[in-house]
Specification:
The complex is a heterodimer of chains A (265) and B (338). With 265 residues, chain A is mainly alpha-helical. Chain A is built from ten helices and no strands. Chain A has one domain: Orthogonal Bundle (MetI-like fold). Chain A has helices spanning 21-40, 52-65, 67-99, 101-114, 119-130, 134-158, 162-170, 175-209, 218-227, 231-259. In chain A, α7 (162-170) runs antiparallel to α8 (175-209). The chains are: A mainly alpha (265), B alpha/beta (338). At the A-B interface, α1 of A face α1, α4, α5 and β7 of B.
């Protein structure tokens, strides 16, 4: 006897979320086309919002003349150094305060007290202490990255599964073994979350840091173009910052996939 | 997508429509400097009110934002240094008009001073050539100080690349940077150089005007204000009267020495009141401007050529596209010489 076929409507289909890759690209492309059209017909004055094609042209000119590379290199140097210093310090302090109760007693109030201070407000002080050169710029970025890192690392360490820790101890692991093999790997997801947060903060502070006594850098480019009302160049700088932001998040996500493979299976 | 279009539409409306002013209050963007003295005189002594204009002074920290505020319709009249930003605003399609003189770097009259660290001066830094390799603080690139510095260096055989130009964003910040020895020299307008010398941490090496005279400060009108011919001319009449009062009180010179007029102390007092600087500092000198507020039009062309050469402007603007001397001429005919 042939099996009966009964048509069944999949009522759960509404819950499924498709990727809509084409729509994503089309939306962005459509916005750019609309923007270009509006500037062409003169609805938006060129001064207020430069046309996308004009921005691309300016970007090309700057890339060809090598100017763009100089600015990007200067900014990247500050970002990498500041981020590196801030993240390293933040992770160390976060682990220390998370693992050792005395460190927590000393560190937590200090972090809580200094975290809310806007780092941009500290910039003039840093310039007074470290001068108007690179150190003050790297320092302000490092400070901005330190706090999310310290706080997130601390949280990551504290939320390590106590069962796993006890199991390790039960199997004879010493304190440092437990830290290295159980607590740290457990904290990695939160550490990476902190790194991504820190990357965004670093870019923000880069622009603020390059406001004072800089002669190169993407932040400097943005501010200088703003000062002389060259809005096309301003947009080039903003596009670069945006690309830097997207790239940094993508790089960190790839690193996370490598370092924390168990989270994405 | 519809939402995006709506948002864009709001942005366009906000950008394109300038706020309507039902009253005749005229917002004047200016800086708290000695060079704004004619404006202070006009406001304080009611010269603008005499011609039916109700003036409202709006103070800024630097010159370039004043040009921006004018382009976006937040103020009607700007009275500040002519910067690269101002030229780029016109190049970008927003019309504004340079209409009157409000200050020139001029030999014998202090406006912008090159102030060096007292220690460096005592140590022998006496000439512009000695500035080679030094850190020079200015407000921003593209400012009047940048222009003065560049031209003064060129006259001494140096280039901008031979010094380290340090942008510090605001004038007080530049003063602090000199005080804190983070820069070796600064270029700032009166009364800041006087303050630096008075407080003992700076020494005025030269006045920029003695080395490179140029049309530095101007009164400019927004497109909308200039189109309101009656009010625009009325404002200019009040300004002209103030300009003459200012000139007669503080700018007269006999045999190369300052010959203060009868209202000198009054003008010093008014300037001190609005700038907050001490009178002794203001008495060091006032910036020069034409008695009848006439612009040095040929210098405008020279400035645009210099900025274009340095890459701050894409191309120059034809003079008739940015300068309008008709207001000053009309006011000069209407206001009787006293």
């Amino acid at each position: 006897m042939a099996p009966e076929r009964v048509a069944v409507r999949d009522r759960a289909a509404v819950l499924r979320r498709a990727d809509h890759r084409l729509l994503r690209v089309a939306a962005l492309g459509g916005l750019l086309v609309l923007w270009e059209a509006l500037t062409r017909i003169g609805w938006i004055p060129a001064l207020f919002l430069p046309s996308p094609l004009g921005v691309v042209r300016e970007l090309g000119e700057m890339a060809a003349s090598g100017q763009l590379m100089i600015h990007i290199a200067a900014s990247l140097r500050r970002l990498v150094l500041g981020f590196g210093v801030g993240a390293a310090a933040g992770i160390i302090v976060g682990i220390a305060t998370g693992v050792f109760s005395r460190a927590e007693a000393v560190g937590q109030p200090l972090i809580a007290a200094t975290f809310p201070i806007p780092k941009i407000a500290l910039l003039p002080l840093l310039i007074l202490w470290l001068g108007i050169g690179e150190p003050s710029k790297i320092a302000v970025i490092a400070l901005g990255v330190f706090f999310p890192m310290a706080i997130n690392t601390y949280a990551g360490v504290r939320q390590a599964d106590p069962l796993l820790v006890r199991a390790a101890i039960a199997f004879g692991a010493g304190r440092w073994s437990v830290i290295r093999k159980v607590i740290l790997p457990s904290a990695l997801p939160m550490i990476f979350a902190g790194l991504k947060l820190g990357a965004g903060t670093a870019l923000l502070l880069l622009v603020a840091a390059e406001m004072i006594a800089a002669d190169s850098g993407i932040g400097f480019l943005v501010l200088h173009a703003g000062n002389i009302m060259d809005t096309t160049r301003l947009m080039v700088g903003i596009v670069c910052l945006s690309v830097l932001g997207v790239l940094s998040q993508w790089v960190l996500t790839r690193c996370e996939r490598l370092a924390v493979p168990w989270r994405h299976t | 997508m519809i939402v995006l279009v709506l948002i864009l539409g709001v942005v366009v409306l906000a950008a394109g429509v300038s706020s309507a002013r039902a009253d005749s209050a005229v917002k004047i963007g200016a800086l708290k400097l000695s060079s704004s003295a004619p404006l202070f005189i006009g406001v304080d002594k009611g010269f603008f009110k005499e011609y039916g204009i109700d003036p409202e002074l709006v103070f800024f920290q630097a010159a370039a934002p004043i040009a921006t505020a004018l382009a976006t319709g937040q103020i009607e009249v700007g009275a500040t240094g002519i910067t690269a930003a101002l030229y780029n605003i016109v190049l970008g399609g927003e019309q504004l008009w340079l209409v009157a003189d409000k200050g020139r770097e001029w030999p014998g009259y202090p406006l912008t001073g090159i102030v060096v660290q007292k220690e460096l001066y005592d140590g022998g830094l006496r000439q512009i050539a000695d500035l080679k390799g030094k850190r020079i603080g200015i407000t921003t690139l593209g400012s009047t100080f940048h222009y003065s510095l560049g031209n003064i260096l060129e006259k001494s055989g140096l280039k901008l690349e031979d010094v380290r130009v340090v942008p510090l964003q605001t004038m007080p910040a530049a003063l602090e940077a000199l005080k804190g020895k983070q820069v070796d020299a600064i270029l700032l307008p009166q009364p800041f150089p006087g303050t630096a010398e008075g407080q003992g941490f700076g020494k005025i090496l030269f006045w920029a005007g003695d080395l490179h005279p140029w049309q530095t400060v101007a009164v400019f009108y927004s497109k909308k204000f200039a189109a309101d011919r009656q009010r625009a001319v009325a404002f200019m009449k009040g300004y002209l009267k103030a300009s003459r009062y200012y000139y007669d009180a503080v700018l007269e010179q006999k045999d190369g020495r300052s010959a203060p007029g009868s209202h000198y102390d009054e003008v010093v007092g008014i300037t001190a009141k609005y700038t907050g600087a001490r009178p002794e500092v203001i008495r060091l000198g006032f910036p020069f401007q034409d008695r009848n507020a006439r612009l040095l039009v040929t210098d405008i062309e020279r400035q645009m050529a210099w900025w274009t050469e340095k890459g701050f402007m894409k191309r120059t603007i034809p003079l008739k596209g940015i300068v309008d001397t008709s207001f000053v001429e009309e006011a000069a005919k209407a206001v009787p010489e006293k």
